[in-house]
Amino acid sequence: MADIPADGDPFSRLVEIMARLRASDGCPWDREQTHASLTRYLVEETHEVIDAIEEGSDAHLAEELGDLLLQVVFQAQLAAERGAFDIHTVCQTICDKLVRRHPHVFGEVTVSGSAEVLRNWETIKREERGNGDAGPPSVLSGVPRSLGPLARAQAVQKKAGSVGFDWDDIRGPLDKLREEIEELAQAIDRGASDEAAAELGDVLFAAVNIARFLNVDADGALRQTLRKFERRFSYIEQEAANQGVELERMPVHEMDELWERAKLRPEGMPPSCGSTSS
Question: What does the mean pLDDT of the chain come to?
Answer without folding.
Answer: 91
